Amino acid sequence: MNITKLHKKYFDFMDRHLPFGGLVRRNPYAIVFKTTNWCWYKCAHCCESAGPDQMTTFIPATTIKSYLAQAMADPMFDKNVVFTGGEIMSSYRFDNADYVPELLTFCRDNKLGTDLKTNTGWINTSVATQIFDDLHTVVTGGPDYWLQVSLSLDKFHANSMENSLKFITKIATRPDMRVCIHICMLGPSASNDYDELKKHLRERGFRVGRAFSPNTGQRFDVVNNVIMYPTLGTLFAGGRAKNLSDAYHNKIPQFTVLSDDMHTLMAFDSFGRVTLGENDGHKIKTRWRASDGTSRSLWNIRRDLVSRAQYEELRYRILTGKKVLQK
Ligand code: SF4
For a pocket test of ligand 1, which of 34, 38, 39, 236 has the largest count of ligand atoms closer than 8 A to its C-beta? Predict the structure, then answer.
């Protein structure tokens, strides 16, 4: 029997008995880069325990580009990338102003679906003008709406209404900036908060129009050239959020690995770890940074994640007598 047939028999056997590992191996995946754990804010609900007391280290741009290049050679990569933190824009504060433009330009030129998450805590600082100018350059250098920027609008983030309004106003008044803005909300007041945001935009003289996707029926709001839509998220009890009474305690967080479109999320962080799934807590994980400081190959990382998924599933079955995936 040749090695390929032997491999296939092994995978078939493992997939039959521990199918969660097979899902991790075969499912399309998106990549999240939690670029730094530093943040201007120190929110009580932060799943990453980010803040101004954290290290100012970033996943190097060369490392991120190398992983994306390796992923692009893998047919299972769904070509979607999320940049988050901490706060990625703090790279400007720490004299690394090329970081965000370099990463976004790479994604744009390689036609990757790109979501940039920012809390806009930088909007009243001296780096704001350069950030808007850089966003303008990278956005207008590519096709319309290639970039999505995700903002937070909730009671947990300080000044989130004021900061989001300033951000949208700045983008919407640049006539050639066609950007999609995703408003991430939490908590019972979410729809009121979104309505209030639109009310403030109208008070500032903007017309807020409506658009619908013919394919999905999803509703969007349109502010000049900006397309805007809200989603309601879950406050997971990871990091500092575990101290909050209204946080959701996921009983088996290690198996929470899928995004809304049912693709697997693989999240790299600035501590050198890779987890399946984005939020904190007990996760299936390995390391992207080897003990000698070099970056491990994406192939080895994915192989580790599959075998650790199988291990977690075996452990779960022994402890509970249940399967993770039911037929
Ligand atoms: S929740 Fe967001 S804004 Fe708040 S500390 Fe964490 S990364 Fe920063």
Answer: 39
